[in-house]
Amino acid sequence: MISGEFGGRRLFAVPGNKTRPTTDKVKESLFNILGPYFDGGAVLDLFAGTGGLGIEAVSRGMDRAVLVDRQGAAIKVITRNVAVTKVPDRFTIVHAAAAAYLQRAVGTIQFDLVFLDPPYAQQEIVKTITTLADDDLLRPGARIVAETDTKVAYPAVPRFQLQRQVTYGITELAIFRYEGDEDN
């Protein structure tokens, strides 16, 4: 943890090299860009790894987080990390592939903040954020943070505004704002 309600607590890492945790430097910069604290809402950490980004968002004021990962080792670590917070009822841990979770979530929740940190070899950011919008999983004004390698170029995405792109070494953060459906 860097800041907020759970400040100073150490999170566990996923053993091996199948996950790529966001470094503390990138995480701190990200939350400085987003605004250091939140006033409620729901966050989705879709490729959660350790769950660190979603846990940090709740620590900084989000009401609840859904932490999704498809790897069993990651789910075990996420469970341990959520236990460190001492408020497990504010977290939902889902062992599923991202696309499978999004299909199940339709009609059950809307998110105010979404973290997308897929494996670099499987980056489908535009497809994923379009699915989130098409399936009504985002509140108007929701922000989506995509963590990718620096080789990704984003086309214009209907209903989204690319607000900022920042590069940290081999990592790039892109922050999108959901403008809502044109019908609204």
From TrEMBL:
BP GO annotations: rRNA methylation
SUPFAM superfamilies registered for this protein in UniProt: S-adenosyl-L-methionine-dependent methyltransferases
Origin superkingdom: Bacteria
Ranges in coiled-coil conformation: none
Keywords: Methyltransferase, Transferase
Keyword Methyltransferase among UniProt keywords: yes
MF-aspect GO terms: methyltransferase activity; nucleic acid binding
InterPro entries in the record: DNA_methylase_N6_adenine_CS, RNA_MeTrfase_RsmD, SAM-dependent_MTases_sf
CDD domains reported in the protein's UniProt record: AdoMet_MTases
Gene3D superfamilies (alphabetical): Vaccinia Virus protein VP39
Methyltransferase in keyword set: yes
Listed transmembrane segments: none
UniProt xrefs under Pfam families: Cons_hypoth95
UniProt cross-references to PANTHER family, sorted A to Z: METHYLTRANSFERASE (PTHR43542)
Protein name as annotated: YlbH
Species assigned in the record: Schleiferilactobacillus shenzhenensis LY-73
